[in-house]
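mind reviewing these tokens:
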Amino acid sequence: MQEEFQREQLIKEKTELDREIELIKNIIKTREELKSDNKNFEYAEMGLVDYYIYHIKANQAKLDYLLKLAKASGITMDTINQLKYENYDEEIG
């Protein structure tokens, strides 16, 4: 019970900017997972077709939800793409 309270308290302590950055990172991660699932679906054998269909639907629903949150917060796709490329440059350098 106390663990739940601490988790909620930590979320409340985050600044608006931190929450937006976390949302953008989740969008980027989910979008990459969706791309991977779609690619894997193309090469899936009989037993894995249903598995990848499930993952595609789940990740698409998650991405739709996250994009709706981003739109409500005023975050644009340009902001998301900019952060993605900044992080990519940091990983390479």
Summary: Residues 15-92 form one domain. The chain has one domain: 15-92. The mean pLDDT is 81. The longest helix spans residues 46-73.
